[in-house]
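Lecture notes, unit on protein representations.

Consider one protein chain, 403 amino acids long.
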Amino acid sequence: MKFIHLADAHLDSPFLGLSFLPSEQFSQIRQAPNESLTKIVDLALAEQVDLVLIAGDTFDSARPDPSSQLFFAQEISRLTAAEIQVVMIFGNHDHMQESDLLIPDSPYFKLLGNREQVETITCQTKTGFNYAVNGFSYLNNHITTDMLEQFPAKSSQYTFGLMHAQEKAGQSNQNVYAPFRSSDLKNLNYDYFALGHIHLRQVLSENPLIVYSGNIQGRHINELGAKGCYLGEINEATRQTSITFVPTSPITWEQTKIELSSEVSLNDLQEQILANLHPQVTTYYSLKIIGADFLTDAQRELMQDSGFWQQISQQLTANSQLVDVRFVTTEHLEIAESDRPYFEQAKTELFTDQEFAELAKDWLKKDDYAAQLAEDPQFKQEVQQLTEVELNRRLKGIEHETD
């Protein structure tokens, strides 16, 4: 038996922060999740898989654009026409009613647990191999209860679990996506547990197999590397399962860096940047400039200008783009000794968690991604480093005015 496990397609994703791109490139990235899904369906047909598991967040919202709905229905029809069983659940983004789907009735398509109740479907492959799939769908955007308590014991058949959820966190306000403990998931001892929600591809357990497939297309610079799906193969005699990651995303996000140890001319700076961007496939880059305190004010301003990013992008292959530049200070930060106490006091006052939360509270209301960033220690560190650069610039300006 062969199967595919995918999750978090986020069709119709808005791709926030990229509206500065030329229309052709922006249209390309808007279509990237669709292209990735089409490649997954192509893979399913080519491999003649028996089952496709979709672990939630197929759509980016509970009210998806009609064109995304029609596109998805078309891709599902390609699978069901080939008599490939599709089992799907809704996630926290696409917490819809089953009746909202535009997919025609078919014995080869099943939405599990439409009313947040764990449901089981039993199926048989063309070779007579029996299996069961247990799972549930979101009806609301939050589920605070541990849903594993509803999952049935492993049956005598090969047993799949299908869930859109995250592991329990230390802070109770984070446990709103069907929180679970890995130990409890292992104790169920299902043959394969297909998870969605976390966009980072990872195997939580080898025995039994508990797997996040990640999303099928990275949506921003914190979703790095190739994205796609898992192709699984089950030895029907021994029930041993092997999985292989198959990349399908047409666009890859990558981070790169340059390190400055002294002041540089603009031409040298541009050459260093281009020397570190060498895409083999369509790649969207985030550039980290370490030693940003060696940049002049004019250079720093230019580095933050999307027009400059486009100038760099025109010299890249594979239609790749520079879409993000971040500054990192080094220990070369030069502050007059008389200014040092004020600088340290400013750091202490600005960089507390309480102050950060207060400054960011309005920004956090904009979207889920902002809320995720605010909890990311790396993002907080980058904000602190950028603030240090700005503080240093301000202090230098005061010193120059004094002189």
